[in-house]
Amino acid sequence: MMRRIYLDNNATTPVLPEVFEAMRPYFGERFGNASSIHHHGQAARAAVERARDSVASLLGCRPAEIVFTSGGTEADNLAIAGLTSAGDHIITSSIEHHAVLHACKHLEETGCDVTYVPVDGRSLVDPDDVRRALRSNTKLISIMMANNETGVLQPVEEVGKIATEANVYFHTDAVQAAGKVPIDVKRIGCNALSISGHKMHAPQGVGVLYVRRGTHLQPLFYGGRHERSRRAGTENVPGIVALGKAAEVAMQGFERGDDKNMAILRDRLQQGILAQVEEAGVNGDGAPRVPNTSNIYFDHAEGESMVISLDLKGLAVSTGAACSSGAIEPSHVLIAMGLRAGQARSSIRFSLGKQNSAEDIDIALALVPETVARLRELSPVYKKVAIST
Amino acid sequence: MPSPKTIAVAMSGGVDSSTVAAMLRAEGHNIIGLTMQLWNQRRMAGHEGMPEQVTGRCCSLDDVYDARRVAEHIGIPYYVVNHEDRFERDVVRPFVAEYLSGRTPIPCSLCNNHLKFDQLLVVAQQIGADCVATGHYARVEYDDTRGRWLLKRPDDRSKDQTYFLFGLTQEQLSRTLFPLGGMTKPEVRELARKQGLALAEKPDSQEICFVPGGDYKRFIDAYLAESGEALPDTSGELVTTSGEVLGEHGGIHNFTVGQRKGLGVATGSPLYVIQINGADKQVVVGGDEHLYSRTLRARRVNLISVEDLSEPMRVSVKIRHRHEGAPAVLEKIAADEILVTFDLPQRAITPGQAAVFYDDDIVVGGAWIA
Hints:
The structure holds 2 protein chains of 2 kinds.
Chain A: E1 5-6, H1 17-23, H2 39-59, E2 66-69, H3 72-82, E3 89-93, H4 98-109, E4 113-117, H5 127-133, E5 138-142, H6 156-166, E6 169-173, H7 185-188, E7 192-196, E8 207-211, H8 226-229, H9 237-256, H10 258-276, E9 280-282, E10 293-298, H11 303-312, E11 315-316, H12 332-336, H13 341-345, E12 347-351, H14 358-377, H15 380-388
Parallel strand pairs in A: 1-11, 3-4, 3-5, 5-6, 6-7
Antiparallel strand pairs in A: 2-8, 7-8, 9-10, 10-12
Helix pairs in contact in A: 1-9, 2-9, 3-4, 10-14, 11-14
Chain B: E1 6-10, H1 15-26, E2 30-37, H2 61-74, E3 78-82, H3 84-100, H4 107-126, E4 131-133, E5 139-143, E6 148-152, H5 170-174, E7 176-177, H6 185-194, H7 216-227, E8 236-240, E9 245-249, E10 272-277, E11 282-286, E12 292-303, E13 313-318, E14 326-334, E15 337-347, E16 354-359, E17 362-369
Parallel strand pairs in B: 1-2, 1-4, 2-3, 4-7, 8-11
Antiparallel strand pairs in B: 5-6, 8-9, 10-11, 12-15, 12-17, 13-14, 13-16, 14-15, 16-17
């Protein structure tokens, strides 16, 4: 039985045992439609509201400002479509997740103007670029809190200030930040914020859009008055309960300093690889990052072949967002940072989760350098370069 | 198969390659399923009259889905590797360029040479596989006497695909397996059924994978339009073999040697395309008798069963995939050029096609008809 090491937690995370335990009763013994009047409904309703409280604590907001959705993508779409109308101008960045980018592209086709601000070599947005892009009809700014591919943290508080001064809505996609770094929506100054359950050890199929009180949001789903008429649809009770528990686990983790320990493990992996492999480096080096991610380029080694080779040896990593597997274009994030296509294609994302141990890192450190070496050996380009230098 | 190896199986989502994967797995080898994503079937959809929906052909979502399900069913790891860039550069662009130069290309041979037995072999090596196995009906074996790898025709002659494999080198052949070489198509389907493969009855695809419906002219128009390139004007004159101008044509890529329909002129007796002159954009037409020739010149030679042609050699030569093969003598007349002299005149020898040389069931080699 091959030992499998999972270092692709930015794609999805395993549901932690305590999270699974918390949600399990809501499939069977404590099932119910949270809107039903009877005992079963009341139990479900209570569970949903307890979860709402937990998520509100995680984000530093009021429970009434939490809207449960089917995930991060829905939350992003709800914010972008829900806070704008035809004729509005939107400012976003070139490195957003496709859920934001494609939602914006769609609005461009239906009467909105969108400005995509660029990023520098560390994949950081310059708040001044956001300010300079403001127009009289700018309605919404959407800048992500942490990038899924590089883990780089954006200057969202500064953007929040700009948005407040300009009286423009500010949404931030915090899907890759939630549970990894503390979030305080007041400090950020955002009107809306998205998180996703399966990126923080809750199951796939549940997420949250934080909507600041007083922010007028047009719903995407019509049907019932769920979530204060912001998102119709019977609540995914087990999923929501899980997300609430995952939020509690995350908060306990921050108190214990788990995020600092995660950074230590990640740095050990990163430094270990860079020490053993030449012509490799971190994409986004020098920028603040979430503690679990390291996106490393390996010159003259094909990323796709690396991922496959490592998978065949039991190590799971990725070359970029899961959504773009098999796609011909290299990561739009890495290209936006200024990497050449070849270097973007030679980049691997390592992302840790709460379940990873020091032993996992050691095994990864044993596998990665030899895999890169083997690929480079088979690369005629590498030999040419090596001989001439 | 001597000892268990790590084998990468090129899986197209069709019965043949799926059966190969199942067979080799059952024999105890370490199998990795690979599909090469070579052409985005949605790319041309709707352009210039191209069909809107494209399913059920290589690289379509359906085929990748089928391959993935087979891999899951037989319990092997499965990956899709993307080489669309290289396919476009080494197969599609040359395909268009050849037609626009008045030749009739064979994209399947180019795909074999550059993608299936080159790029895929590289990937296989990179991920730790000793060799690549495909569902081609052909055989490969090592001949101790000659000290060379031989490519041979399969048992099922009706499915013989060796015509498209003439470009394989010794290096490539040494790391290729063709497990279906000794089986007939009905036997393969039967084996697929026995292995519980749901696609045992899936029909074969016969066309060029990136030209849905086989209308290559429409494809060329759509491809150039999509790239923002103008279709070069290759219109010119339709002339007889004695140079008399019979009419005009709208582009040399609309014709292929031996073509009878669509000429736009009539003289009372059947007319066929005899020759296409890319340089002066003339299409020469004539009666059936003008289609015959006893010789052809072929370049970019690849020899498999022999190292070189120091002396003239008697072989059977196929000038098209669907050609019986005809007795001929091969003679090397320049560094990379062979003169083929047939015993009997052959009909519609077409520049751009391949001349593939056989010594009974051994593929001696082949070259491109000039």
